[in-house]
């Protein structure tokens, strides 16, 4: 559960700082990266904006992913990836329940959407799960050893 906790804390802390201190777009790396405070009422890339049901779909999908390692044997890499995905989803669900939208602020010049730390970890987690599956990593037994 380390990654879940770490991702939620980093996500919520970064959003709190952005909401409190960012008033205008701020260049971090000129021409490539800047912080732009954005309210995202949809999901990825703003799809399904203002759809109240999306909060519940996200909540139940997060709950499902959190329970996967309890019922399915997974490798260490898969577990870490799933924890990152769940942590990122929880961070965004907290925003949806608390604010009614998700705070996005990371703006890459050549990427089509503004995103946040939770989205970043969801992506990294997905890549880790995919790499684990492609490498055919063996699941761990109850003692933490590969079968």
Automatic annotation (TrEMBL):
The chain crosses the membrane at residues 21-37, 43-68, 113-134. The lineage of its organism: Bacteria, Thermotogati, Thermotogota, Thermotogae, Thermotogales. It is a multi-pass membrane protein. This is Lipoprotein signal peptidase. It catalyses: Release of signal peptides from bacterial membrane prolipoproteins. Hydrolyzes -Xaa-Yaa-Zaa-|-(S,diacylglyceryl)Cys-, in which Xaa is hydrophobic (preferably Leu), and Yaa (Ala or Ser) and Zaa (Gly or Ala) have small, neutral side chains. Belongs to the peptidase A8 family. Its EC number is 3.4.23.36. One of its GO terms (cellular component) is plasma membrane. It is found in: Cell membrane. This protein specifically catalyzes the removal of signal peptides from prolipoproteins. Pfam families: Peptidase_A8. The active site is at 104, 119. The keyword Zinc does not apply. Keywords: Aspartyl protease, Cell membrane, Hydrolase, Membrane, Protease, Transmembrane, Transmembrane helix. One of its GO terms (molecular function) is aspartic-type endopeptidase activity. It comes from the Bacteria. One of its GO terms (biological process) is proteolysis. The gene is lspA. Pathway: Protein modification; lipoprotein biosynthesis (signal peptide cleavage).
């Amino acid at each position: 559960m380390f990654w879940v906790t770490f991702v939620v804390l980093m996500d919520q802390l970064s959003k709190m700082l952005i909401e409190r201190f960012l008033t205008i777009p701020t260049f971090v790396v000129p021409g490539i990266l800047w912080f732009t405070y954005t309210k995202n009422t949809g999901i990825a890339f703003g799809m399904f904006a203002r759809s109240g049901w999306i909060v519940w779909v996200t909540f139940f999908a997060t709950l499902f992913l959190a329970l996967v390692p309890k019922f399915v044997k997974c490798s260490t890499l898969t577990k870490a990836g799933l924890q990152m995905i769940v942590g990122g989803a929880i961070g965004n669900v907290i925003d949806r329940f608390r604010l009614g939208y998700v705070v996005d602020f990371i703006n890459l010049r050549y990427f089509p959407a503004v995103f946040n730390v939770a989205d970043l970890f969801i992506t990294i987690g997905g890549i880790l799960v995919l790499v684990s599956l492609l490498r055919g990593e063996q699941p761990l037994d109850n003692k933490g050893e590969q079968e």
